[in-house]
Design brief:
The structure holds two protein chains of two kinds. Chain A is built from 15 helices and 16 strands. Chain B is of the alpha/beta class. Chain B has 15 helices and eleven strands. In chain B, helix 5 runs parallel beside helix 6 and helix 9 packs across helix 12. The radius of gyration of chain B is 21 Å and the shape is globular. Classes of the chains: A alpha+beta, B alpha/beta.
């Protein structure tokens, strides 16, 4: 249970949130035409006769877009509808050449599914929570109006016209901006794992319509508003926060919430009315007579299923159970495709170089990947050449550390030089003297000298002042110029101090 | 030398192949006939150069010994609903006046590939909406036929009225038509020619200006059953660009033509005996039965109980689809744009569409918009779809007892232009016998049967099982052979 509440003058209010996410399907060509879909092309350079709705043109479904929607549905363990149908949503706008959008109202391709958001105390999510997903349907995107090209006229760019979108509709299951944010991040991760959407919110590949209502505890759902086209996780959270507050203010002032469509202003973090229900379009949905019902064969579904990668939840579980990582590390490593890909490559390489099992080196590799390596790279800034951070180089450093040849500090120093120069880690350790001494004889001599020189402290330690152990370690390391293997130092000190 | 314009598709093709005359001579003869027939107003634009170029290609191919296509040397008229590359394509509307596509419809391309040439773009009811060819922005088309003793201009039927007029007047040996709810068969019946609407999906709809997508089907109009079989063979075939296109081989209908109907059963639907049907039409129906019996067929009674609901259902489904299909004509990208001073987008839409569409088109857009509206959708559109399914089931059941259905094509013969404009509903009734086969997507053909007391042609309609164009054509051929329909309109134009 989320404990997120809005404190109003009349008491606490609960926020109810549902998200409709529009995700652009990753595919070479559009949903119903052969035109290309690359971002940032010259205006109207990726427009076929179908996209421009020339007379007599007809849509033909792109199998790859359908496949991606099905795989996405499978990734959220949703009902896949082997029979679905396209409907026309009719309205006039200059960015909509056909005068209708081909969508799926009555029979979507994907039915009910769900998505797990993980507990995150800091963010105010006390426990894992399952968010229901109502449906996923595929539909065409519209073009874009450009208002800054001419003093009195607007221009139309149809490059996006007809690009395939998945509309992923959640149930009203979220209760806080944090949950909505976690849902969006998780959904984005799943889409990127599956490869059905690049999740790039800046380029508009993913955007959300945010449905918000408020209610007192135990009451039925209040009237909701829909804030359209919010294009970042942060903005979605802001929009919810602002909209919920606004609704509470309205209700507590004795007003009523009007069911309406609102716009989010990223500049001010506020929402404002776009159109009310009275101005709402009557979209006159009906089955598109240019298209036959979409029937998915068993073979096709089997191929979709077989092509799914290991998904975030399964991966996270495996990291904890098979690799022995902490739940925190497992979650961090599985959050992004790039992160786990780098981790798994380095893990395999390190296991190979050390000759140990992946489980034996996983924690070391995880710590390195999540904190040590990023820390070094960040500190170096522009001096670092990320291309030098190969898996082989990093595994080389980790293997030396694993064998006790270098200390943690030396590992960082070596990595710094690797990043700057691309030199071989073993060669660096040798040439720069970045190796720690594990030679018991040398360390023993140093330990003996320190015990002899600090008889009083030895006395106190033996009398029970155990905190002094750290002093002896420090002195020994200092005497060894920091290059002694701490394990060996500890071991010898313990033996000699009794 | 024979008058080349009296020849049909088969005679021209075979004559060119044999060397009796050249394709160029044929094209020149028809170009001249077209130029001489402006009074019919059958063409919106003429394209004599297209016909000549195609003819020269055929003559050259023949000279080089190359194999000739199934329409080689035949110049045809192209209904102005088919997009033709570089030639104005208007759907007989103001909103598309001056629109010249840079693409060619699949059907017209197949015809050019088969060796046909184009005489011009044929007039039609605007956006194929009409049954008399009086809704064209480019003026009414006159039938070449006149009532005995009258000079009143008669309707060639619609919407393929330019096609029927041109073929009946012998200014084209054949023409393309499209049929949404009778637009090939009714004009064919009105003008004493043949026309077949194949099974839905036989001919690609790609590049044909859409009226009602789930009903629109292209087909040939010509003066004989054989000519229709030849031309349909050139037009039909699977097209990956049309999702509703049939993924089936095209049979050689011409080669399999056979008027021997022994062992075949011909169904007579009792519900087609409707009030208001001309006695002469009923008589010709009786005559048709006798002809088919004579050809060896057994005549059986069948029932199509939902027939009377077909027309109302059609006038919901077709306008609903049209209201959406015609939304693209908005003045933004092509065609007419009416942008009053200081107006915004909504004003531009309103002005453009008000000026660009004719009354009948507007009427159907309004009907279609209404029946799809929230609160009315189930009562109209959903209900109409149910009726449509029942009409299709009627045919399915009837075809358990017969192979082909014989019915009148229209309840009346042609009427004078301007005589039916009072009430659109009476006009809509013209298609009462044609619409059921359209709703069911079945192949259906009209063949000329006789001349009525006014000297006007009457047609008989044959409806077949899905994909059985052959059965329809064969029964049509049996009627053609026995009807001996040789009447020709007297030239007055």
């Amino acid at each position: 249970m989320s404990n997120y509440r809005i404190q109003g003058a009349t008491g606490e209010w609960e926020v109810v949130i549902g998200l409709e996410v529009h995700a652009q399907v990753t595919s070479q060509s559009k949903l119903f035409s052969g035109a290309a879909t690359a971002f940032g092309a010259e205006p109207n350079s990726q427009v076929s006769l179908v996209d421009a709705a020339m007379p007599g043109m007809l849509p033909v479904p792109n199998a790859e877009c359908i496949r991606q929607a099905v795989r996405t549905g499978m990734a959220i363990e949703a009902q896949i509808n082997a029979w679905s149908r396209f409907d026309r949503k009719n309205y006039f706008y200059a960015d909509l050449p056909q005068g209708y959008q081909i969508s799926q109202l009555y029979h979507p391709i994907v039915g009910e599914g769900s998505l797990l958001i993980e507990a995150d105390e800091k963010a105010g999510i006390p426990e894992d929570k399952v968010i229901g997903i109502e449906r996923i349907h595929v539909e065409q995107d519209a073009g874009k109006l450009m208002h800054d090209q001419h003093p009195t006229m607007s221009y139309v760019d149809l490059n996006r016209s007809g690009v395939a979108l998945m509309e992923i509709v959640s149930k009203p299951d979220m209760r806080s901006p944090a949950e909505a944010g976690a849902y969006l991040r998780k959904l984005r991760a799943i889409l990127r794992y599956v490869g059905s959407c690049d999740g790039n919110m800046e380029e508009g590949s993913m955007r959300a319509d945010v449905n918000v209502s408020v209610r007192k505890a135990g009451e039925p759902f209040g009237t909701r508003t829909e804030t359209k086209n919010v294009n970042s996780v942060r903005f979605v959270m802001q929009a919810i926060e602002h909209e919920a507050m606004r609704q509470v203010d309205v209700l507590e002032a004795g007003g009523t919430i009007v069911q309406e469509t609102r716009l989010f202003d990223p500049g001010t973090g506020t929402t404002r009315t776009m159109r009310s229900k009275e101005d709402a379009h009557d979209y006159r949905y009906f089955p598109d007579p240019d298209l036959l019902p979409l029937v998915l064969e068993e073979d096709f579904l089997a191929e979709c299923r077989a092509s799914l990668p290991e998904l975030p939840d399964a991966k996270r579980k495996r990291y904890v159970e098979a690799l022995g990582l902490t739940p925190y590390n497992a979650r961090e490593l599985t959050a992004e495709v790039e992160t786990f890909a780098r981790f798994e490559t380095l893990l395999a390489e390190t296991a190979k170089v050390t000759g140990k099992g992946e489980d034996a080196v996983a924690t070391q590799v995880a710590n390195w990947s999540l904190s040590v390596a990023p820390g070094v790279m960040k500190a170096l800034g522009d001096e670092a050449d990320a291309a030098n951070a190969t898996a082989a180089a990093q595994a080389g450093i980790l293997a030396m550390a694993d064998k006790g040849e270098i200390s943690g500090g030396q590992a960082k120093e070596i990595f710094e030089i690797v990043l700057k120069t691309g030199r071989d880690p073993a060669e660096i350790a040798e040439a720069e003297g970045l190796k720690q001494v594990s030679d018991t004889g040398a360390i023993e001599a140093a330990v003996d000298a320190i015990i002899a020189a600090n008889a009083d402290k030895v006395e106190q330690y033996r009398a029970g002042k155990e905190a002094l152990f750290g002093f002896f370690v420090g002195q020994t390391m200092k005497a060894m110029q920091g290059k002694a293997n701490p394990g060996v130092v500890n071991q010898l000190l313990k033996a000699k101090l009794g | 030398m024979t008058d080349l314009t009296s020849l049909g598709v088969k005679e021209i093709r075979d004559g060119v192949a044999k060397g009796d005359f050249t394709a160029r001579e044929v094209a020149e003869a028809f170009n001249a006939a077209v130029a001489d027939a402006a009074a019919l107003n059958a063409f919106i634009v003429t394209t004599p150069d297209h016909a000549l170029a195609a003819a020269d290609k055929v003559d050259a191919a023949r000279a080089s010994g190359a194999e000739l296509g199934r329409m080689a040397g035949v110049p045809i008229g192209m209904k102005d609903l088919f997009a033709t590359n570089g030639v104005q394509t208007t759907a007989a509307s103001h909103i598309l006046e001056g629109f010249t596509p840079r693409y060619e419809s699949t059907v017209s391309q197949k015809l050019w590939d088969a060796g046909a040439g184009m005489l011009g773009k044929l007039n039609l009811d605007q956006f194929a909406m009409g049954s008399s060819n009086e809704t064209s922005y480019f003026g009414n088309v006159s039938s070449p036929w006149r009532k005995t003793g009258s000079n009143a201009a008669m309707s060639p039927g619609g919407s393929s009225g330019g096609s029927s007029s041109a073929v009946a007047a012998r200014i084209a040996p054949a023409a393309t038509g499209t049929d949404t709810g009778g637009s090939i068969r009714q004009p064919a019946a009105f003008t004493g020619i043949c026309g077949i609407k194949p099974t839905y999906g036989r001919c690609s709809r790609w590049g044909i200006v859409a009226f009602a997508s789930s009903l629109d089907q292209a087909g040939p109009m010509a003066r004989s059953v054989e000519d229709c079989a030849i031309m349909l063979g050139a037009m039909a075939g699977f097209d990956p660009k049309d999702s509703t296109s049939l993924r089936m081989d095209v049979p050689d209908w011409e080669a399999a033509l056979n008027a021997d109907l022994r062992g075949k059963k011909v169904g007579i639907p009792r519900e087609y005996r409707m009030e208001g049907t001309d006695q002469a039409i009923l008589d010709s129906w009786e005559q048709g039965k006798a002809w088919l019996r004579d050809a060896g067929a057994e005549i059986v009674d069948v029932s199509l109980p939902h027939t009377k609901y077909a027309l109302p259902a059609y006038y919901i489904v077709a306008p609903a689809e049209a209201s959406s299909n015609l939304a693209r004509y908005d003045g933004v990208r092509y065609g007419l744009r009416d942008l009053p001073d200081g107006s915004g987008l909504q004003d531009m839409y309103a002005a453009t569409r008000a000026a660009g569409f004719g009354d009948e088109v507007k009427r159907r857009i309004l009907i279609g918009t209404y029946v799809l509206s929230a609160g009315f959708y189930d009562a109209y559109y959903t209900q109409a779809q149910k009726v449509r399914a029942l009409v299709a089931r009627d045919f399915e059941r009837a075809f358990q007892d017969c192979d082909v259905i014989l019915a009148p094509t229209t309840p009346t013969a042609s009427f004078p232009l301007g005589s039916m404009n009072e009430d659109p509903l009476t006009m809509y009734l013209n298609d009462v016998f044609a619409v059921p086969a359209s709703l069911a997507g079945l192949p259906a053909m009209s063949v000329p049967a006789t001349i009525n007391a006014d000297g006007l042609p009457l047609g008989l309609q044959l409806v077949g099982r899905p994909f059985d164009e052959q059965g329809v054509l064969n029964a049509g051929l049996a009627i053609q052979q026995r009807a001996g329909f040789t009447a020709k309109p007297e030239k007055w134009w």
